[in-house]
Amino acid sequence: MKEKTIKSLEEISAVQRMLEQNGVWARQQYLKDAHYLARLDFQQSPNVLWIGCSDSRVPAEIVVNANPGEMFVHRNIANQVATTDFNCLAVLQYAVDVLKVKHIVVCGHYSCGGIAAALRPQQPGLLLVNKWLMRVKDLYRLNQNEIESLPTQRERAMRLVELNVIEQVQNLAHSSIIQEAWSSYEQPSIHGWVYVPRSGKIRELIEMQPRSAINPIYM
Ligand code: CO
Predict the structure, then answer these.
(1) How large is the average pLDDT for residues 93-98?
(2) 53: annotated active-site residue
(3) Residue-wise pLDDT tens digits, 20-62
């Protein structure tokens, strides 16, 4: 057998390191529970759909100590639930109607680059990102007085992070997928959280139980 040269971490590229670490991780999983991953081969039955930001500092499973099989995950810039986004809606439909998740978590985070960008003028050359963040700009405009009453830009951005999470929870509640699930199976409940990068902790902002009242114009 050809002997592999052991390279220093500096020498190997980031992706090679990922593949090596995958081998380490898979071995650790096997030693912890030899059959855990094999059992998941047959089916998944996660209780939770996580909708979070793509930000590398908020790795969904890691921050809640979740194992493979525990969470169905959708992530995009600034954790948006847009009713025109087939990607998000397809994930939502599958999670709710097929996997029958009991909970949906929308988790935003402070220091969110997407939210900060939405508070600035559009950036030339980032046409798609600008469009994606347009709804966050709308949310700022609709809450401009409250947000602008805060003394610092940092606090204004933090408040918009929170308002954005609450808005996405509302967007879920207004969707026909959730409305039908609430009337048919009385689940899922929807939770709005914000992750604090500097402490690693999560704060709860809002919770909507099945059949929570919504504005009748959305029914
Ligand atoms: Co973010």
Answers:
(1) 98
(2) yes
(3) 999 999 999 999 998 988 889 888 999 999 999 999 999 999 9
As to burial, measured by CB atoms within 10 angstroms (0-12 exposed, 13-18 middle, 19+ buried), residue 100 is middle
Distance of CA 44 from the midpoint of ligand 1 (Å): 28
SS3 content of the chain, % helix, strand, coil (to 5): 45, 15, 35
Question: Which residue range forms the structural domain that includes residue 34?
Answer: 1-43
Based on the domain organization, do 133 and 180 belong to the same domain?
yes
pTM over 0.85? The answer is: yes
141 and 184 fall within a common domain: yes
Pick the catalytic residue from 74, 88, 107, 112.
112
Q: State whether 8 and 102 are in the same domain.
A: no
Examine the domain organization and report whether 9 and 101 are in the same domain: no
- Integer Cα distance of 41 and 22 in angstroms: 17
Say if residue 101 is in the same domain as residue 171.
Answer: yes
How many structural domains comprise the chain?
2
The answer on 193 and 140 residing in a single domain is: yes
Amino acid 41: pLDDT: 87
Distance 30 CA to ligand 1 centre (A): 33
Q: What is d(CA 101, CA 172) in angstroms, rounded to the nearest whole number? A: 14
